[in-house]
Amino acid sequence: MDLQREFHMTGGVGKTSYARNSSFQKKAYDQAKDIILKTLQQLYKETRPKSLGIADLGCSSGPNTLSTIRDIIKAVIVAHHPFPGSFYGRLFPENTIHFIYASFSLHWLSKIPPGLYDDQGKSINKGCINICSSSPEAVSKAYYSQFKEDFSMFLRSRSKEVVAAGRMVLIILGREGPEHVGRGNSFLWELLARAIADLVSQGEIEEEKLDSYELHFYAPSAAEIEGEVNKEGSFELEKLDMLEVDMEWGNEDGISYGKAVAKTIRAVQESMLASHFGEEILDKLFDTYGRIIDEEIAKEDIKHITFFVVLRRKL
Predict the structure, then answer these.
(1) Please, which of 62, 91, 184, 260 could form a disulfide with 249 given CB 3.0 to 4.6 Å?
(2) Is 218 exposed, middle or buried (0-12, 13-18, 19+ CB in 10 A)?
(3) What is the mean pLDDT of residues 172-182?
(4) pLDDT at residue 246, rounded to an integer
């Protein structure tokens, strides 16, 4: 019998497949995972290779190999960039990445724009938590300035890591035109500020807490994205499409559109809000928020503008 040809794990995803019957092997890996990853990280720290070659011998088929490779990649990233923080700066060795996918991340800024504070460290954006209809012009300028700084850093960092002709695909929440205020993505934050203000009026939150809370969110326009890509110069803009995503929230769980949106926003912002305002107000806050969204959506739609961007590393 030709063992090299005949001996292999059962492929596919059927009842007798290796993919569905290899939990024992997965448990063994899980027990040894810490040692495997620490060994790999130690190797990386000692050698600091330009690129790291890794082979999985006898990897067979199924999810075990994919989860192992995922763990290995994460371990190398941690070893290369050991402190938690921004993805805007350098992450990978030079000329090692062929494809980067960044989905719903680049509208989150690396920090609160410094320009939002006066000489005494007080916010100039009182009553708002992002760009809103009552924000002074300096607020939108501060957010735009921070976006330009962050996005250009992101492009510079990735230009070192992505090989020539490599691609980046980005999905970014944005806005339709030059005006910062409207019924787009930022409007949802204005409504959240309104919900917080409602609790302030009831004496459940101090007004100073609202005035001192700012979101690190910016919804760029297509022109702003294109402008920064052209200015940095390392990537060619292959595609920049605007998608008006239809948010079919609500009804499935017997809840309203507003309540469903509020649940989604809570999943994104809960840790920040709990840290600043306290966990005890969150249920009431998001109940109020859902009601306000329902009231607004009954008047006019809220547009969830999303940009789909494809960048090609220049040769």
Answers:
(1) 260
(2) buried
(3) 92
(4) 62
Q: How far is C-alpha 240 from the chain's CA centre?
A: 19
End-to-end CA distance of the chain: 51
Give the integer Cα–Cα distance in Å for 245 and 135: 27
Q: Which amino acid is at 52?
A: L
Q: Model confidence over 246-266: pLDDT tens digits?
A: 655 555 567 898 998 999 899
Q: Is the model's pLDDT at 122 over the cut of 60? A: yes
List all residues 6 or more positions away from 79 whose beta carbon is below 8 Å from its beta carbon: 40, 41, 44, 45
Report the alpha-carbon distance of residue 218 to residue 225 in Å, rounded. Answer: 12
Query: Is there a contact between 221 and 177 (Cβ–Cβ < 8 Å)?
Result: yes
Q: Which residues have C-beta within 8 Å of that of residue 189, sequence separation ≥ 6?
A: 129, 130, 131, 132, 215, 217
CA 280, distance to chain mean position in Å, is: 26
Confirm if 198 and 243 have CB atoms less than 8 A apart: no
Q: Distance (Å, rounded) from C-alpha 215 to C-alpha 37? A: 35
Tokens of 146: 């921070």
Class of residue 310 by CB neighbours under 10 A (exposed 0-12, middle 13-18, buried 19+): middle
* Angle in degrees, 0-180, between the axes of helices 282-299 and 185-201, rounded to the nearest 10: 130
Entry pTM: 0.76
> Can you tell me which residue has the tokens 């690129």?
51
